[in-house]
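Quick one before lunch.
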Amino acid sequence: MTESSPLISVLILHGPNLNLLGQREPGIYGRASLADIDHTLEQEAKSLRVKVSCLQSNHEGVLVDAIHAALGQHEGVLINAGAYTHTSIALHDAIAAVNLPTVEVHLSNIYKREAFRHHSFIAPVAIGQISGFGIDSYRLGLNALVNYLREP
Ligand code: DQA
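Model of the DQA complex:
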């Protein structure tokens, strides 16, 4: 990367109920709030010299719209789709439609939990998935996505 390289921009999407992080089932999701996660990602982005834009929504259509709007605005998507991971063909189709490199992350290890969390509709359209490392899942996911965008 040179000083004149265009700045990579990454859209970070958080799905339903993640606005309650910090107070929501802390034994599973930890004590960090969503603001703490976004702050950590902004710091990480600074050291990686990329730009991040963070959005949380409890509404599937808002997340679909944000993925569509990412075209031409962002080079990649980092997504924790929350429970929509396990239900949303619409999010699967939106990611496939825009064809932007996407990394799926989860705070908890979804494969260690209830069987209904073992299937992801996002995984087949993601370049990879990181699950089970708490806030580090996001940090690792951002690093992996940026490395991929720099050297696909
Ligand atoms: C989650 C795991 C999902 O199964 C759950 O519905 C969430 C959070 C995680 O980050 O561990 O809301 O995506």
